[in-house]
Amino acid sequence: MSTHPDITALRLFSAMELPPAEQERTASHLAACPSCRDEMRRAGEIVERVRQATELPVPEGTWERIQARRAAGDRVIPPALPVAPAARRETVPSRFPRRAAAIVLACAGVASAAAAVPMLRDWMAPAEQATGSSKAPSAPAQPTTVPNAPPPAPPAAPRVAGSSIAPVGGVAAVDVDGATSELRIRVRLADQAEVEVRASGAAADAVFHPRKGRIRIQDPGPGQLEIILPREARRVTVRVNGRPQLVAEDGRIDVLRQAHDTIDSEIVLSPVPR
């Protein structure tokens, strides 16, 4: 057989309906032609998938309608099995899908199943692209939106609180009561007129009692207190849980207890519970 079998011959061969001599010649050709043999193997695999995907009865006149559709230029392309790029055969791109489409649908008699089974419709798009055939581009997928969905919650704002007082005659006091060892107290000097206390984290839950020349911070939670003292004040005393911790005088800080650390120009106190 000098040429490849046509569609009708392959269909009749697969159904064992060729005359004996022609059946033998087609079998000999397939034995010697890897290309046709590979197409028949793929067609058989697709037929099996189609049989597993649907139980629809085969309508009468299926093959005649397929021939009529092909004569009218209509093409139905079943799926090609995925092949690794390095293992693809170098063949004419449109040859296998066109021939296998008619072979598979003719052998299985499932032309109507191609429209009824979603799996086959999903497979058709990759096969059509593989043939390089022209096809109207589909509309881009639109993002799915949920109607009346609430907007995402904004990030929680950091918890802060604070208060300030003015020294009286250059003298002031800061009292921190109810502090635990988890509280971090940072003290520094600044060029400003007032004593300022800022609380962040759980320490912002503290109760602030500003008075004339004195401010009391009660029950700060585990967080941070920042105490900013006027550099020009004559004397400012910081007490924690009733114990004097440091004194700022004339632009200088004297630490009265050893439970502290320094970060640059700041003094970091570690409260000792009562």
Automatic annotation (TrEMBL):
Record field: compositional bias (Pro residues): 148-157
Region span, Disordered: 128-161
Protein name: Zinc-finger domain-containing protein
Organism (species): uncultured Gemmatimonadota bacterium
